[in-house]
Design goal:
The protein is mostly helical. The protein folds into 2 domains: about 110 residues, no CATH class; about 30 residues. About 55% of the residues lie in helices and about 0% in strands. The longest helix is centred in the middle third of the chain and has 19 residues.
Length: about 150
């Protein structure tokens, strides 16, 4: 039932939630989610749907990837995953571990590396265009005046 709800809410042609809702909820566009789903599904058999001991379908790849992303993006505790997706604490943690292993395996050379000079030049141009020259190596931006900064952060 939780798989059907997930599909109906976000992945069906007439999904309950819009593209903007999807991006706000998953912190990524749907095509990025689908790429992640495809990649983890191809690399790790854990993300392929199987049958449990009673012959019923196990958790779907969509559920497993959603749980892993929710735990990482929101710091969601495993007991909230049980309430929402019916997935036990052990299964949630195992799913997260498998997901992270696949992400590192698949994307380490492209995304999980130090930036090269071309990357740095592109980032410097982007930050300069947005009014933050010299932003590289100054990620905290504490030297910038922020007119609307909440008083507790000043």
């Amino acid at each position: 039932m939780s798989h059907a709800n997930l599909m109906n809410n976000y992945f069906s042609p007439n999904a309950v939630y819009t593209k903007e809702d999807f991006k706000r909820c998953f912190w990524m566009r749907r095509h990025v989610f689908e790429r992640l789903l495809r990649d983890v599904h191809q690399v790790n058999p854990y993300f392929r749907q199987k049958r449990d001991g009673t012959g019923r379908p196990d958790f779907s790849p969509h559920q497993k990837v959603t749980v892993a992303l929710r735990m990482m993006a929101y710091g969601s505790p495993t007991d909230s995953m049980d309430e929402t997706y019916g997935m036990s604490e052990f299964t949630c943690l195992y799913t997260l571990e498998q997901f992270c292993d696949v992400i590192v395996q698949v994307y380490k050379d492209e995304y999980l590396r130090e930036p090269n000079q071309e990357d740095l030049n592109r980032l410097i141009r982007k930050t300069e265009d947005r009014g933050f020259p010299g932003m590289i190596r100054s990620l905290d931006c504490m030297h910038w005046d922020w007119k609307n900064c909440p008083t507790r952060w000043q």
